[in-house]
Amino acid sequence: MADQVDQSDRRLPRAEVTVDLDAIRHNVALLAGRAASSGAATMAVVKADAYGHGALPVAKAALDAGATWLGLAALDEALALRAAGITAPMLCWLNTADTDFRPGIATDIDVAASSRRELDAIVDGARRAGRPARVHLKIDTGLGRNGCPADLWPALVDAAAAEEFVEVVGIWSHLACADEPGHPSIDEQAKRFDDAYRVVRAAGLEPMRHLANSAATLNRPDLHHDLVRVGIAMYGLNPLPDKEDLRPAMTFRSSVALTKRIAAGESVSYGHTWTAERDTRLALVPAGYADGIPRGLSGRLEVWLAGRRRPVVGRVCMDQVVVDCGEDPVAEGDIVTLFGSGVDGEPTATEWASNLGTIDYEIVTGMCRPRISRIYLGAR
User: Fold this and answer.
1) What CATH number is given to the structural domain containing 216?
2) What does the pLDDT look like over 308-329, one tens digit per residue?
3) Is there a single domain that holds both residue 70 and residue 188?
4) Is the N or C terminus of the chain more exposed, i.e. has fewer CB atoms within 10 Å?
5) pLDDT tens-digit profile of 198-209?
């Protein structure tokens, strides 16, 4: 288990992610409270190494704060948490065609089926495990990715209902535009989901239903059903335009490796895309695109250094960026915050995403890199 970090006795970071587990707990408690008001339980989605935050510490924090389920994409992700001692219910839902489901079924991991082929593979694993598989049937209600097409749904439901090695414990789907309040597809998908549930009931099954993601958990209580699946919001990043009391959990930091003065007219970094208009002091920061700073932020990136925002000048390199500090007395060893919660004025992951024309999911998940150390605050 991660320990509380003594910030006073550590080496300066080359590239370091700090994850605030108390922020995770705060966010999960808020989301689980919204779900509970509708009578729904909460699944904390910790796929992709908890969106780059670390699956095991985040899973523990989420369960501390009121989540009762964990959601993973791949079976291997779920098995790793089981091996680490996590006993909470888990669902994994996106596996390859040759996945062996037996180990997951043997360790009480729920699995999803979107097709007859996938159901057959699950049945094979269940037979070899010597116990029924707990299965969540997925219906495609309009996202067009995973999930069973509506015309094949009755046959999939009937096959699952007739199989002795399958216990259908859930049906579910995924919303395409829940982060755009009022989008007509939301209600259309909800209607299709209800239609799919009627088919399941007609087959004599009474499974739980889950449809709501983070956005729908926050603003569509009518879609909470029995279980909500919270992802990006539990990490403190808001999928909606309206303000919510969510606390970003991740901070990305480095430190100053070198300072130097250059004269007006001197240029910086590859291609000489930036030239100093005045004599100035530069700070070299030993983190670059190999460490998760997208090269596309060249000319559009600021950092928090020595009490204020400062511009990164020249191109982002593989291993380093250069910061213009003017006449300020910046020193080697000073901590550089690349992004954080924004509370002190530092850049945020959402700001990076906006500058790049992408989403903050991509920014934080991109922090899973070999040279980035990960530190946990608020561990219990």
Assistant:
1) 3.20.20.10
2) 999 999 999 999 999 999 999 9
3) yes
4) N
5) 999 999 999 999
Residue 8 has pLDDT above 70, yes or no: no
Query: What pLDDT does 5 receive?
Result: 44
Q: Does the active-site annotation cover 47?
A: yes
Among the options 138, 235, 270, 361, which is catalytic?
A: 270
Ramachandran region, residue 22 (left: φ > 0; alpha: ψ -120 to 50; beta: rest): alpha
Query: Catalytic: which of 47, 51, 361, 376?
Result: 47
Q: What is the mean pLDDT of residues 138-161?
A: 98
Q: One-letter amino acid identity for 168?
A: V
List the structure tokens of 201. 């009931």
Rounded-to-integer distance, Cα 241 and Cα 92, Å: 29
On whether both 261 and 226 belong to a single domain, the answer is no
- What phi, psi does 38 have (nearest 5°)? -105, 5
Looking at the DSSP bridge assignments, the partners of residue 209 are 171
Asked if 180 and 62 sit in the same domain, the reply is yes
Shared domain check, 256 and 214: no
Q: How far apart are CA 119 and CA 137, in angstroms?
A: 9
Dig out the tokens for 365 from the structure: 């998940």
Kindly report the pTM of this predicted structure: 0.94
Told to judge if 270 belongs to the known catalytic residues of this protein, a careful annotator would answer yes
Which of the 8 DSSP states describes residue 63? Answer: H
Measured distance CA(219)–CA(379) in Å, rounded = 30
